[in-house]
Specification:
single chain; about 400 residues; alpha/beta; Aspartate Aminotransferase, domain 2; Aspartate Aminotransferase, domain 1; 2 domains; seven-stranded mixed sheet; three-stranded antiparallel sheet; 12 helices; globular
Amino acid sequence: MKSTLPPPVSGERNGRRSDVPFFDQSETFRRLWSEIEGNCVRVMDDGKFSHGSMVAGFERALERYTGARHVVGVNSGTDALVLLLRAAGLRPGDEVIVPAYTFVATASAVVHAGGVPVFADIEEGGYGIDPDSVAAAVTARTRMVMPVHLFDRLADMEGVGRVARAHGLTVVEDSAEAIGMRANGVHAGLLGVGGVLSFFPAKTLGAVGDAGALLTDDDAIADTARMLRHHGRSGRTLAAFPGISNPTVVTGGNSKMDDLQAAVLLAKLTRLDADIEHRAALSRRYDDRLRDLPGVRAVPGDTPARPGEDRVVYVHLIEVDDRDGLVAHLTAAGIGTEVYYPRPLHLQPCFAHLGHRSGDLPRAEAVCRSAVALPLYADLTEDRVDRVCDEIERFLTGGSR
């Protein structure tokens, strides 16, 4: 049976047309529809819709792409973090140092795994965790440190590694945004004991719903994570695994990946490197247009790559003096934006019991007041980037353009 996608409704969001939506992948699906449809039909014919052969095929393909010994497909990047922390040996009450400037899942995963998040500041001139702030946060209860590879660059893994070795800490990576990023040929997520990937639709490799994966070269972590994602089972039988070597693991949950998500991801993986190159070209165009405008504090291209680093632009983040005014202007002009992040984690109400106050982690707090993400995705065109830049220039120069 043949089917076709309907004509795209470009930029329609919540019933309101947007000239440049923050994210849109309708053209990607039109281009890849034949392959996506074929994969989905195979899932239907197989009759296994979760934890089946399509998921296994995607795991193998992602192992080849990343170079990981093990990829464990799960239902979200968040669950991947929880499983990674548990499989890496986090015990109830153990502290995990995380950056204050990141998505809340970084810290909430620590809580769900039974640990206590401890917040550190970000580095000067960047968005990764600051190794000196990590060192200052270490206590007798600290067991792990979780750097986050954020937006378009890796965290300072060399600096984090030095601190971790000095204090006997395990390094786990929140590499949810970092598919394609490498350091000296080693993929993000494989620079510590393990990492994760998120396939949330807007990610560089996105599904049509929630999906994620755990990456590791450690056999024991991979085996434990596979059990944890499936109620502690070692396979697809109803029997619980009889002898888990990690004593902190008691029960698992239901964190399996859906095969229809794997079907979409397998098709999109074939275009990933081309999409990464397109994102890089669009990001450079943004940089060239915006970096010298009055009121622009930083653009991604201002921070050079570390030696041996392969950067991938997932989010094009700029810092501006009047961030909120610019967001309002772009919204009125039909241009989507996202604020990453409106409040640092140490000042979030859910972590108020940890006792932080405004001013404790000043670099994270400052970025939260100035940073805004602009549209960037595989279906975005150069003329739309120019449209966004024209409106930003109009706002920052008082309409003098």
